[in-house]
Amino acid sequence: METVLRPASFSLPRAARSLRTLPHYWDLIVVLTAHRIRVRYKQSALGPLWAIVQPLAMMITFALVFSVIARVPSNGQPYAVFAYAGLLPWTAFAAALATGAGSLVSHAPLVTRVYFPREILPLTYVAAALFDLAVASTVLGLMLLYYGVPLTASAIYVIPVILVLAMLATAMSLILCAVNVRYRDVGVAMPLLLQLWMFASPVIYPLSAVPAAWRSVYALNPMVGIVDGFRRAVLEGRPPDPVAFGTSLLVTGVLLPTAYLWFKYAEADMADVI
């Protein structure tokens, strides 16, 4: 079967047709996602436990610095649990972006020789990051038991929070990997971008620490509602903040289709540029 890519153009009907074809490539998505996970931990003594080591090491560091020295508030929760609950969604998001941004460039031979929807590549990295999130969440469960933090029925709100997290990670990965095909500066700038973004999100401090006058502007960062919503659902037994999480949902809902449309526009000549 021969597939002809049209010249680059913004076309909603064409993007919609491409989206409808994605289920036909479900087997490829599953195989590539499993491959991501296997390769990441291949010839590793700890294997998938590395998904736990990173947020756990960061939690220990933050607990020593921000609870003992700086004494950052933690909404009445033990700071170790507070920090780890914030690091879980953030680490998954950061891992998805760090790997997804280079997904097309790292698979240049595949992109130039075989046709398939190119968005599958960043999608598989997002799926692999969510797998790591599931593995790392087991430690959070043990920490809740150790510190005597009850898990209530409100923990069910973690599901929509993670769904929005996956949507946001997909949108950002689509944008960054398409730009990275033309400008490799993206890969160089990624560590700085993620570091700044983390401190601009309530990972190591609570949302309540942000002055009320600035909170609505601050919440325009979609990771604010995601991190805070995850923490509220698991630690506080409350649903996500309607303003913060609603803003995250709105921003992500606009960003994802826009990112997909831009990606399909850029896809036309990716094989030539890469």
Short structural summary:
This protein is mainly α. It has helices at about 10-20, 25-40, 50-70, 80-100, 105, 110-115, 120-145, 160-180, 185-200, 210-220, 220-235, 240-265, 270-274. It has one domain.
How would you describe what is shown here?
The chain has 274 residues and is an all-alpha fold. It has one domain (25-273). 72% of the residues lie in helices and 0% in strands. The chain is built from 13 helices and no strands. It has helices at residues 12-21, 26-40, 50-69, 79-100, 103-106, 108-113, 120-147, 158-182, 185-199, 212-218, 222-236, 242-267, 270-273. The protein is globular and about 55 Å long. The two termini are 23 Å apart.
Question: What is the radius of gyration computed over CA atoms, rounded to a whole number of angstroms?
Answer: 20 Å
The average pLDDT score comes to 87
- Residues in helices, as a percent range: over 70%
Please report the total strand number as a whole number.
0
Order of helices and strands: HHHHHHHHHHHHH
Helix-strand makeup class: mainly alpha
Topology of this structure?
Layout: H1 12-21, H2 26-40, H3 50-69, H4 79-100, H5 103-106, H6 108-113, H7 120-147, H8 158-182, H9 185-199, H10 212-218, H11 222-236, H12 242-267, H13 270-273
Helix pairs in contact: 2-7, 3-4, 3-7, 4-7, 4-8, 4-9, 4-11, 7-8, 8-11, 8-12, 11-12
